[in-house]
Each structure stands twice: as structure tokens, then as C-alpha cells.
Amino acid sequence: MHLWNLLSKDYYARKIDMQGSEEVTVADEMNGKIVLEGRGVGVVYANKYAIKNVNIKIVRNTITAIIGPSGCGKSTLLRCFNRMNDLLDARVEGEILFNDHNIYSNGINVAEIRRLIGMVFQKPNPFPTSIYNNVAFGLKINGFKGDMDKQVEYALREAALWDEVKDRLNDNAYSLSGGQQQRLCIARALAVEPEVLLMDEPTASLDPIASAKIEQLVTRLKEKITIVIVTHNIQQAARISDYVNVMMVDENMIGRLVESGPTREVFENPKSKVTEDYISGRFG
């Protein structure tokens, strides 16, 4: 048995309906609590679709995981949520709604979108400066007028790092361990008080102990903000997420969303055979 005692069924050909049917939308109970929503989202790089016709809803103050095998477009989808794909010369189709406003509309302040929808990457990427300056960076460029010291402390506490660094704030961030550097990057994102935090494989380069600390931190953070996490670790998704979205590639190697729903429901009773095969370890 694998993850919540999935019942074993006879294996058959992986034929998936990936045309944006109702089965790939999140449960109706989420209506009214949606902070982010993708409608018919597609991303094209150099005239080739990376993902196509993705419909996804993200519930406020929850952890939503996006899982699937390598190359299925998980990170591409994640970057749509704060327009990071703009930096990669990609064409984005469809709509991304943040609090019911399409962030790809003309006149949208992209810098403000990225403040409200922060991002943490797979590998820790602290700036080559002090721990303090790393956290204060976003505050400074956003014209923060409050008590800088207090806000830096707040962010480090939120990232469960304050007690470990409070006596060494002037040390270079590179003096921290890998896990500490990742929590510093989380603190840097939290300092500007985003509504949503996007996390792209945040524990992929960390050891199990450091990964567990990040998982504990993420679970606590959802009380204040919404988390969307891309992960290859199926067990991690099962442990920490409230909702899960499963992505696969079709016969044309285009990423599609094949199933969405509450995590336990998807893991216990997947609607798609390909979902069951993936989470039970038969492929991927």
C-alpha cells in the first residue's frame, strides 16, 4: 500500500482526458475563498507550448501543492502567478486572477504584483551581503517607512530564524547553512508582507533535517498567507498540502493539469488512472 492505503487496481493504458473538463477544477466548496485562479492558462516558449488550457484555483490560507513528473510544466505554471515568465520572453495565454483581478491586464503594476505574490526558489539565493541587508532589501526598494529593525526581526521570526541569527545580523548571509539560507530567503519574501508565497521545490537541495524545518515553517505560515508549492516529493505533498494539483504531459509533450482536489481525496480516490499510477510510484 502506498500513501493513505491506495487500493491496487489492474494497470491499463494511460489514456487521459486533458481538455479542461470539470474534473480538473477544484471542489465547489472552495468558491468564495479563492485568492488565485488560472483560467485556460497556456505558456508558449519559442512557438512551442509548455503548458496549455490549465484551469486551477488556489484557496486562501491553505497550502496547495503542484506535483507531477519532470518536464510537465509545474514551475512554468507557478511562474505565471506573479508574472515571472515575463522575464523569460514567454507568451502567456488565458487569465490569472488575483483577488478577482487579471494580473495580465494592461496597466497592472507588475512590481506590486510580485510584492504581494512572493517567490522562493529551489536553491537558496541570498544576496552577497549581511543577513540584515538581505531581509531589508525588499523593504528598501518598496519605500518602507516604518521601523526597519522591527520589520527585519518580524520577518526572521516568521521564518523561524531569529533565534539562530539575532546575534550575527551583520554576518554575511553565505556564512549560514543551506537550510538557514533558504529560511533567510523566505524571511526576505515575508518582510514585505505578501498575501501569497510561491515555492518552487524549496527543499530539493536540503538535507532531511533542514527539509523538515521548512515543512514545519510552511505549515505554520498558512495561518497568515497562502502557500503554493511545487514539489517532486509526493510524500511531502501528502504531509503538508491541503489541496493538490497533478500535472502530466500529453502525447505532444505539452503540460496539462489532469486532476485537482483536496489532498486526501486525490490520494485516496484519484479520478484519473494516470494520477493513481504516479502517486503510487508506478511511473514518474
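The record above closes out task 2.4. Task 2.5 opens with a second protein, given below.
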Amino acid sequence: MHNPDDLRDKTILLGVTGGIAAYKAVEVVSGLRKRGAEVIVLMTQAATELVAPLTFQTIADNPVYTDMFAEPKRWNVEHIALAERADLFAVVPATANIIAKAACGIADDYLSTTWLAFSGPRVVAPAMNAEMWSNPVTQRNVRELARLGCEIVEPDEGRLASGAVGRGRLPEPAIITEEISSVLHADSSLCGHTVLVTAGPTREYFDPVRYLSNPSSGKMGYALARAVRERGAEVHLVSGPTHLIPPRGVNLHSITSAEEMLDRCAQLWPRVDALLMSAAVSDYRPARRSEQKLKKDAGDPGELVPTPDILSNLQSNGGGRFVLGFAAETDEDSALQQAKDKMLRKGMDMIVLNRVGECRGFGVDYNEVVLIDEEREESLPAMHKLPLARSIVDRVVQVISD
């Protein structure tokens, strides 16, 4: 986490659009102000139907901009002046509509026009109905914004305004505030390093339609890749199947099976000096894969054989890299010892104990872990996976720098 006054002397444009989560933007403004930032709020007309501009004006202690053709509050071309003055532009919440406009360069109101005139770092926090978020058009637009350099704070999963449960909730305001701070304080502590990160599940197919796998979403690995990239490293992310948007500036290598993950990591291994292995690799695969769908009445689909041990194979081709691994355990009584044994057995420098259970581990947005190395154990409290990843990378930087 950054210092409480780390945004002093920073000016942040905060765009608020017409999503039901607009009320949470008030807390984002408050959090930024507490860190010393000057915040200037721009609202769409739809947003003003949900939260009164006076609320933001009071919290931000600045005029709120809504109308392109209102009499200027200062005598200049206001949207251009604001764009030139600000250090960062964030949109909280970002509806599917504003995301589409931004991706296509449409500028038809105050917010979108100022966005197009702005040339600095940007943070976008989408929030919408789950079906709207997963719509291929929205996903295409989000990927385009990421390609153009926007930091995307992906929505959380949970109960939505409609009463349905799915992905589309705006993350907690503190997470968004921390993300804004991180973008403005990117450092170069890993500059010159090349880091390999593995993420997501692997799939081991019995036949063209059935496979062995696990519930890993890849969120932890993608967060680690983002946290390492923020520190200035060159990052290669070898990922199993996920629905996540790769972090900006990261080299993505998509794979499916454990064998494919090993092959890709082995190709990259001579170029890297650190490995963060968060992928949930399937331990077994079918001994034989059928080219046709196996019928249910065919009986036993065949024996299982172990998948390759990726880390052992890599280290047999030359060690000397910093290695961080993960241990997903379910037995509360023996989890710590099992993680320590795995770290020593596999020659890791550090391991993250991930106690899998209700609201912890696979597929969730928050987690609590224990960081373990030869000298100490450090329990980290439950937190969103992005700040958790940054805390883990803080420790990695300490070890690499010693």
C-alpha cells in the first residue's frame, strides 16, 4: 500500500457515468482527497440522474463538469484545459456505453470529449450487468482500451443490482483508489529483469469434448504479471484457458495442457531470471486421448498418468533463477508443513500457501495467504488479489535486491 499522502500535488480527472454503481464513485473521490489529490469530476447526464452533482462538488471541493455548452467556469476551452492540467483520468464506474465510445474515439459529451483530448495515464473501472460484461462486443472494446494503454480494473463477481449473481460489480472504492495511486507511482525496481509468470488451469483431454482440469480462474497469476510489469520488468505470462484480459505490456503465451505449458516455459527459460509459478497444473492426464467422443456405455475411459513436473524439468536445464511457487492445501492442520516441504523438495526460494476453502482460493476475487521462505513465515490478511499480488512482489523485490 502507498503512503496516505502519496497523491499530494496530483490532479485527477474522475469521470462518472450512468451506472447504478455511480454512488460508489463518491467514496473514490473521498479516498483520493484523503491522499492529497485534487479531484475534478466530470459526469454524464445519465450519471446526474443517479447522484446529484452537488454531492461530488462538496466532496471534491471543485466544480463538477456536465454540460459541454454551459457557460465556462473558467475562461478557456475547458475540456482541453482540463485534459492538459490533469495527471491521470479515471472513469468510475465505466458503463458499456462509455467503454464503447472510448474504444471507438466517439466524443459527443463533456466526459468523452475530454477523454479524447487527454494524453496521460488512464484507469477504467467497468461495472454493468453480467451479460453486458461478457458480451463479445464489450470484451472486444475492453481489450482495445487495454491495447491503447488503459489500466482496466476488472469487475468483481457477486450480487448485481438486478438481483442476479455474476461478474460485473464495481470493485470496492479502496481498490480503485489504490490502483490509481499505483499507476501514478509505477517504479523501476525490477527494470532490467525478465520474469516468467504462469497462470490459470491446464486441461488434459480424454476426447474432443471431455477433459480433466480444476477451478482456477487465473486471477492470481494475471495480478502477479501486472504487479511485476508495474515494477518495470519484462513479463512473459504463460496462461492456461481463462476469460481474463491480459495486463497491458505483458507478453501473453496461451496454452492448454501441462505439456504445452512445459514446452513454452522451456523456450522462455534461458531468457528469464525469475519464475512466479501460480498456474494450477493438472497432476494427471489420460494415458491415451480418443480422437472421437467416448460413449458413456463404453466403460472405463482408461488409465491416468502423471503430467510432467514443469519446475523440475526447467531447473534441470540450468538453475540460478529466483523461483516462487504456490501450494494449494485443504488440510488446515498440516497445510503449513506441506507447503514448507514442497518448497524444499522443489528447490523454491519462496512459496505462497493458499488454503483453499469457502471464499478462499480458486475463482474468488479476494484471498488470504502465507508467504514462506527459509527464514520466516508471513501471514497476509484477506485482500483483493491485485493488492495481494503487489504485496507478494514487494517481498520478491526484497529478496532479489539483497
